[in-house]
Task: structure prediction
Amino acid sequence: MLDMGKSDIEIAREAKLQPVQAIAESLGLGSGDLELYGSYKAKVRLETIERLRAQPDGALVLVTAMTPTPAGEGKSTTTVGLGDAFRRLGKRSIVAIREPSLAPSSITTCSRGIAWVWIRAESHGSASWT
Result:
């Protein structure tokens, strides 16, 4: 069997979280630019986005794949790795991962911007909308 090193939980437990305000400051955002949800999660205020609209856009990298590698590395791992690589190259970068794994489901967005999640009941062969 191939030794993959530490497990996901081991890596997560060793991680030292940074306050979201410190991360925002490294991107040129102040505490007034954020709507905080605790110490480690925040949304950027709409007013901030409007204020910064005149600044040049950055580059956007989208990561997509159908299956993970044999080692289990998928889109999330690749996305975080790219963000780290850009920072090591001295670039300002931020990673946004929209959803955790939705392997047993599909998402459709209707015209009102509401995401409908179609969950397959693998054991029953049926499906339902939530």
Summary: Residues 103-130 have pLDDT under 50 and may be disordered. The chain has three domains: 1-55, 60-98, 101-130.
